[in-house]
């Protein structure tokens, strides 16, 4: 009579293959998550910029001002800190009134504007929605990954996200 089943060595080979494949999957998942963080951060920022531009076009009233306001986005690239962007409104724009501040995920950072540099304020003109400083560029990069996305804002107000 013949015995049925697997030998210990056959089971060890199968377990070894499963462990190797599992290790490869876990390694690839980390890169996938960083890529998704980059994509979602760039898309979210572009959408916030479009919403802010629309508020300027429609001359939405700034709550603290009581009159129609210019609206903008402040990009802050902190060396060794949390990069963030802030939605704000202003009238003369020497001081701003913050509405919402969003911190980037730890896996991405702004590279344009430069880390530790001055904040970049993108202020949209009323009615037309063009950026007051002309063409603007924001670049978000994966930390440790090298991939990046660029948000271009043209002088006529077109906002687009491109791979860079």
Topology:
Blueprint: H1 8-57, E1 70-76, E2 84-90, E3 97-103, E4 108-112, E5 120-124, E6 136-142, E7 148-153, E8 159-163
Antiparallel strand pairs: 1-2, 1-5, 2-3, 4-6, 6-7, 7-8
Roughly what is the average pLDDT, rounded to an integer?
Answer: 89
Structural Rg = 24 Å
Stated plainly, the CATH topology is called minor pseudopilin epsh fold
What is the class in the CATH system? Alpha Beta
Tally of alpha and pi helices: 1
| Helix content percent band | 25-40%
Number of domains: 1
Order of helices and strands: HEEEEEEEE
Strand sequence of the main sheet, in spatial order?
Answer: 3-2-1-5
| Intertermini distance | 68 Å
Give the overall form: elongated
Unreliable runs: none
Beta strands, count: 8
Please provide a brief summary of the model.
The chain is α+β, with helices and mostly antiparallel strands and 164 residues long. It is built from 1 helix and 8 strands.
If you had to describe this structure to a student in words, what would you say it looks like?
The protein is of the alpha+beta class. It has a single domain, classed as minor pseudopilin epsh fold, CATH 3.55.40. The chain is 30% helix and 30% strand. The chain has 1 helix and 8 strands; from the N terminus they run αββββββββ. The strands form 2 sheets. A 4-stranded antiparallel sheet has the order 3-2-1-5, with helices on one face. A 4-stranded antiparallel sheet has the order 4-6-7-8, with helices on one face. A hairpin with a 5-residue loop joins strand 7 and strand 8 (159-163). The model has no long low-confidence stretch (mean pLDDT 89).
